[in-house]
Write a structure and sequence with these properties.
- This protein has 9 helices and 3 strands, in the order H-H-H-H-H-H-H-H-E-E-H-E.
- It is mostly helical and about 300 residues long.
- It has a 3-stranded mixed sheet with strand order 1-2-3.
Length: about 300
């Protein structure tokens, strides 16, 4: 978070945030790919469609890091005469692409499970399936913790959503373990049934991600951020009222503007009030890049 009003400070913060996001994506990509490879090897020796559903989904999750990675790189580009706000919106578009990929993976996994339900096939090496499910849970949870932490630090809704989704995937991996347990207890259809349930759970949980990304594309803002900015400005000495306040996310950076009422006086005194209000809102609201504050008087 910048502690001065120099444009260079905001640019440095934006670049640092993008670098943190790219690093998080790199590490989580390799962790999920390693998890997917281990699970796929167990699928080959066991024939578990529940594990196959989980493996397909983990693979698609790993691939979702690629468009988000590209979006972070595009977001580093400076504003131009054509894109006067920069290319930060690419991050939210990448979030929509992630939703489509994950939904497609759920449909494929459900189709495989339905086929196996109609034409049952024995599941072998069940203890290996259990091990693979535990590996899937551990890999997804590690990725979830890392993505959510970094996403919250840099203000990236797409990265946080990806992390929450990875955490959910970890629990679907535990569902694979439950399916293997059902087969061990003499209920062979437990495996394809769990595969279908995993696919349904993925679709249901995608709704939260769709809402989060859609809100940002519509310039929606978290009410607590708005309240924090409003309190910071209203509490500035010399500010009589906050007539208008606007905030919006552009990628993982915030931009905004406000109209404040100040007492009648000289132009220099109004500038002092504006400078202090900008300073306070810069400390109160994280990831704030550009904030234009305009003073006015009443009467």
């Amino acid at each position: 978070m910048p502690h001065s009003h120099d444009a260079s400070d905001s640019i440095d913060d934006a670049l640092e945030a993008s670098e943190q996001g790219v690093r998080a994506l790199k590490i989580s990509l390799f962790v999920l790919l390693a998890t997917t490879v281990l699970q796929f090897l167990v699928v080959l020796i066991s024939g578990s469609v529940a594990l196959l559903a989980d493996t397909i989904h983990n693979f698609s999750d790993a691939l979702t890091a690629v468009p988000l990675w590209i979006a972070f790189l595009l977001g580093r580009r400076a504003a131009s005469r054509r894109y006067t706000y920069g290319l930060g919106r690419a991050e939210d578009l990448a979030g929509l692409f992630i939703v489509v990929v994950v939904a497609a993976s759920a449909i494929v996994a459900a189709w495989q499970s339905i086929v196996r339900l109609l034409a049952p096939h024995p599941v072998e090496n069940l203890w290996w399936v259990v091990v693979a499910g535990v590996i899937g849970f551990a890999g997804n949870e590690a990725v979830a913790i890392y993505r959510i932490r970094v996403g919250q630090q840099i203000g990236s809704a797409a990265l946080v959503a990806d992390g929450v989704h990875a955490r959910t995937d970890g629990f679907t991996s535990l569902a694979v373990v439950a399916g293997a347990g059902g087969v061990m207890l003499g209920f062979p259809l437990a495996d394809p049934i769990v595969g279908i349930l995993i696919s349904v759970a993925i679709i249901v949980l995608l709704w939260g991600t769709v809402r989060s990304i859609g809100r940002r594309l519509m310039d929606g803002i978290e009410p607590e951020l708005f309240d924090r900015a409003e309190r910071a400005i209203a509490g500035t000495p010399g500010v009589l009222a906050v007539d208008q306040l606007q905030l919006r996310w552009v990628g993982h950076r915030l931009q905004g503007a406000a109209l404040i009422v100040v007492a009648d006086g000289s132009l220099s005194s109004a500038e002092v009030v504006v400078h202090e209000a900008e300073h306070r809102v810069g400390h109160a609201v994280p990831n704030l890049d550009r904030f234009h504050l305009r003073p006015t008087t009443r009467g």
